[in-house]
Specification:
Blueprint lengths: L13 E6 L5 E6 L3 E6 L2 E7 L4 E6 L5 E6 L10 E6 L4 E7 L6 E4 L3 E5 L3 E6 L5 E6 L9 E2 L6 E5 L5 E5 L4 E3 L11 E6 L5 E6 L4 E7 L4 E8 L7 E6 L5 E6 L3 E6 L25 H6 L6 E4 L6 E5 L4 E6 L3 E6 L6 E2 L1 E7 L80
Parallel strand pairs: 24-28
Antiparallel strand pairs: 1-2, 2-3, 3-4, 5-6, 6-7, 7-8, 9-10, 10-11, 11-12, 13-14, 14-15, 15-16, 17-18, 18-19, 19-20, 21-22, 22-23, 23-24, 25-26, 26-27, 27-29
């Protein structure tokens, strides 16, 4: 969630928040740096005064983090991507782009950087540029990359159409040439295994989930967020793909349950990603079924948020005011989730719930293999690589910018939970 794009109630210092690929961690970007937290239980794991950070994305629970400046200082350029190792507290490499970076996605194989009219695909182990995709105008940087090593990439093509790209084999996946309804797509999200893709319409009233693979794709589920238009800000599948959380500019967070009995039949003659069911009238509900949310979270009015469900089935939200809240999943269909605890990322937490799950220190001591990076670390950044030169023909990634070993294999930087020796 890039908070620079939204007005309304928010913490001025707060610029960005997101969950990692399995919702086990939360990354936060601010005017002065970035912070990392585990989500269940909520605990601080790393805090850096790196400079203004507008995007911060984690590689699962490893110490590898990708950050992009917010533009508040000359050194925090929104055109510069930095790969940072929290274990050594050093920047491993940098890449400078011709225009502002709008979105970044990564998995164990690929780093995807989204600009307004291009998508750059890099190999994670060397940060060598593998492919550049020319895209239609994409000012919101809408894009999704599957967390799985299959590395399927999805992005908006023409209005109402989604293009699939195999970022591992560097091949465009044909989804069929069919007429579309011209509905603009506002958000995309893959599930953890990369075989389901959620897409939201511009009005935010329709959420469609596609079953995808390297060779096929077809509508699998349809959900209705509501009848009032709202911009969908964030979507997240639970780890087991049982639930999909949807947050929007509306104060209500919707949680949908993927019930196999409600899965749509495969329709060979319908357009795949270019086909949207016409939910323009209430009569469509009688034809296709009114699949509403199974649970709700009532957020703060005029305050955007993100939401995810952890492996322990805890519903966790982070709003633009910097408030992290945890909820128990509603047991009754269509009911509200029950608030368990809240914590503020900024300022005092006096008066918060006694059941707060946030601990200032990890439960285990630092001698344990599960101990983490000490909290509130001030980081002095050392850059050990070169910038990407778009005017050069020699950008294979070989040389100072590499962070693979001699055999070209990915270096395991260790889990975020592992004890680290810090270099200042």
């Amino acid at each position: 969630m890039n908070l620079q794009e939204f007005t309304g109630s928010k913490q001025p210092e707060f610029l960005f928040a997101n969950f990692n690929q399995d919702a086990s961690c939360i990354s936060v970007g601010t005017q002065t740096g970035f912070s990392l937290y585990t989500s269940d239980p909520l605990q601080p794991r790393f805090d850096s005064t790196f400079g203004g950070i507008g995007i911060v994305e984690m590689l699962f629970r490893t110490s590898l983090v990708v950050v992009v400046g917010c533009g508040n200082t000359p050194t925090a350029s929104p055109r510069k991507l930095t790969i940072f190792n929290t274990a050594t507290q050093q920047a491993i490499c940098e890449r400078l782009f011709p225009t502002s970076i709008l979105n970044v996605k990564l998995n164990n194989k690929r780093v995807v950087v989204v600009l307004e009219n291009k998508i750059h695909v890099f190999a994670l182990d060397s940060m060598s540029l593998l492919h550049i995709i020319d895209t239609p105008h994409n000012p919101m940087g809408i894009c999704a990359l599957s967390p799985s090593d299959d590395s399927l990439l999805a992005y908006p093509a023409a209005p109402g159409e989604i293009q699939l790209f195999d970022a591992l084999k560097l091949l465009t996946i044909t989804t069929g040439e069919h007429p579309h309804k011209g509905i603009t797509i506002s958000n995309l999200a893959f599930n953890y295994s990369g075989d389901l893709l959620a897409a939201a319409s511009e009005s935010g009233t329709l959420i469609r989930i596609f079953a995808v693979s390297e060779k096929s794709c077809h509508p699998a589920y349809d959900f209705r967020r509501g009848i009032n238009a709202a911009q969908v800000i964030h979507m997240n599948f639970s780890f087991d793909s049982t639930y999909l959380t949807v947050t929007s500019t509306s104060a209500t967070i919707h949680i949908f349950k993927l019930v196999p009995e409600q899965r749509l039949p495969l329709e060979e003659n319908k357009g795949f990603f270019s086909y949207w069911m016409p939910y323009a009238s209430a009569a469509a509900s009688a034809v296709y079924g009114d699949y509403r949310a199974c649970a709700y979270v009532r957020g703060e009015p005029n305050c955007v948020s993100i939401c995810a469900i952890t492996k322990h089935n805890v519903v966790t939200t982070v709003n633009a005011q910097g408030i992290v809240a945890t909820y128990e999943m509603a047991e009754t269909f269509g009911a509200d989730c029950t608030l368990k605890a809240t914590f503020s990322l900024f300022g005092s937490n006096e008066g918060e719930s006694d059941s707060a799950v946030f601990d200032e220190e990890p439960e285990s001591d630092h001698s344990n293999s599960n101990s983490l990076t000490p909290n509130h670390t001030t980081t002095t950044t050392t850059t050990t690589s070169h910038k990407y030169d778009y005017n050069s023909n020699n950008n294979s990634g070989d040389g100072d910018g590499d962070f693979a070993d001699a055999d070209g294999d990915y270096i395991d930087y260790g889990l975020l939970d592992a004890p680290h020796h810090h270099h200042h």
